[in-house]
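Give me the 3D structure for N-acetyl-gamma-glutamyl-phosphate reductase.
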Amino acid sequence: MIKVGIVGGTGYTGVELLRLLSQHPQVKITAITSRKEAGMPVSDMYPSLRGRVDLAFTTPDEARLNECDVVFFATPHGVAMAQARELLADGVKIIDLAADFRLKDTAEFERWYGMPHSCPDLLAEAVYGLPELHREAIRKARIVGNPGCYPTSVQLGFAPLLKTPGLVDAAHLIANCASGVSGAGRKAEVHTLLAEASDNFKAYGVKGHRHGPEINQQLRVIAGVAPGSAAVHCVFVPHLIPAIRGIHSTLYARLTPSGQQADLQALFEAHYRDEPFVDVMPAGSAPETRSVRASNFVRIAVHKPAPDLAMVLVVEDNLTKGASGQAVQCMNLMCGLDETTGLLQVPVLP
Ligand SMILES: NC(=O)C1=CN([C@@H]2O[C@H](COP(=O)(O)OP(=O)(O)OC[C@H]3O[C@@H](n4cnc5c(N)ncnc54)[C@H](OP(=O)(O)O)[C@@H]3O)[C@@H](O)[C@H]2O)C=CC1
Ligand SMILES: CC(=O)N[C@@H](CCC(=O)OP(=O)(O)O)C(=O)O
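Predicted structure for N-acetyl-gamma-glutamyl-phosphate reductase (350 residues):
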């Protein structure tokens, strides 16, 4: 059995990790931390886990994380990088759900996250945890930077277009994305109050959102151009929807004259034919967020609303494929298991 520790077990991604890992046939959860709730049985806080998780929260200092095989950080930015070196020295594999190991440029990291990076050498070693694009590197990784929720949907939607050279004008991509409020975490904030977030729809972060540089860094990797190259650029606009879980991304790319001849439906179906978690919907479809709720699946539909325009619709659950499910998918790869182990739950309806 793989001994797993979770730092930050009271948050939404933490409890989603508990839900998935408590059903995983190869995992024993040995440590789960909270500074504020230390001593409280997990199932007192989350009765959904009664009979499934028989542990109490402990402080990170008491958690004996160095005895784990894998430690997940479901914590705010900056926590994982402070503890990574010591855990790696003890042979522990690390998966960070925050952004400490995502942005490769430390100046960009400092600009967007407001803190200097404390271990650039480990950042250079870390693998970006999107299995559909970096599967072989994840298998060998000691540290994985799990992708942001929005960047997961944007990369999976654009990848088939960018991997085919000369198909689209990659310098002028657009990603309009909308998320449910659980994306903001469990901490109390005015903008996620029921009276603020329900019966409302708004864009936010329009002057710049920290997922913009992550999206652009990774789209350049996908397209095979140099870091910072103007040949690939995406405008990213996040929106808040009055839902709890779910991300819906609408992506646009101008087709080049030769790209206009391509059969986009066939391209997407071929690209994702062997991917267990990516479902390319039939032509003409419009996937909805509830079709992936509480599951690790992503559903994608590709359209051509004008002769020179590709439009891609992507849905994912921000807490599952957008965070904790993806992290478990990475753990499976890092531990030599079948990638889908413990992750094939059917989405919840209605
Ligand atoms: N929500 C989402 O959809 C997604 C979130 N993420 C990222 O995942 C991470 C966790 O998100 P989420 O679960 O939403 O966050 P929450 O705010 O819901 O939970 C944060 C957790 O971290 C713990 N924590 C906070 N500060 C520290 C610290 N200094 N040391 C140790 N533990 C700490 C908290 O418990 P306590 O304070 O009691 O210790 C709590 O359990 C974030 O970095 C977020 O950006 C990524 C993708 C999607
Ligand atoms: C709805 C909502 O507020 N979503 C979050 C993104 C959640 C996420 O992926 O977070 P990290 O990249 O910080 O890990 C936001 O826009 O800040």
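Residues 173 and 234 are 4 Å apart (CA to CA). Let me know if you want a second pass.
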